[in-house]
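Exercise 3.2. Students should predict the tertiary structure of the chain below and write it as structure tokens, then compare their answer with the key that follows.

Predict this chain's 3D structure.
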Amino acid sequence: MNLDAQWVVGFVDGEGCFHIGINNNASMKDELGVQVLPEFTVVQHEIDEQVLYALKAHFKCGVVRKNHGTRLAYRAPLRGQENLLKTVIPFFEKHQLKTRKRVDFQKFRKVLLMMEKGEHLTKDGLEKFVKSSNNELPKIS
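Answer key:
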């Protein structure tokens, strides 16, 4: 299935999610013990799984996995941060989202660029990041 860029934009406007998770993780090597997890996700009923695989092929990154019940998810997670910066981000910079999701994307992009510079590894950087992404900061001991 070959996907047209404007179709992808419309589909992601309606069904996509640009998410930034922040979790306490004592095994992290940084001083904060916090893990920042950016993820681009699209969820669909299993009957439309071909669309999710087409998105995976389109962006040349990510995975399609069972989400919940009869739903599947296309996910381009943190482990693919480089892929997010080289494929997903440039795509949506060139082909802008039309809804409020564009604001979510801009925040997501900003956080990824901060992460690329390592800003999420310091307390000041993490606080700046949290402010940018509208997340809550987990308790840092």
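Discussion points: The two ends are 49 Å apart (CA to CA). The chain has one domain: 5-133.
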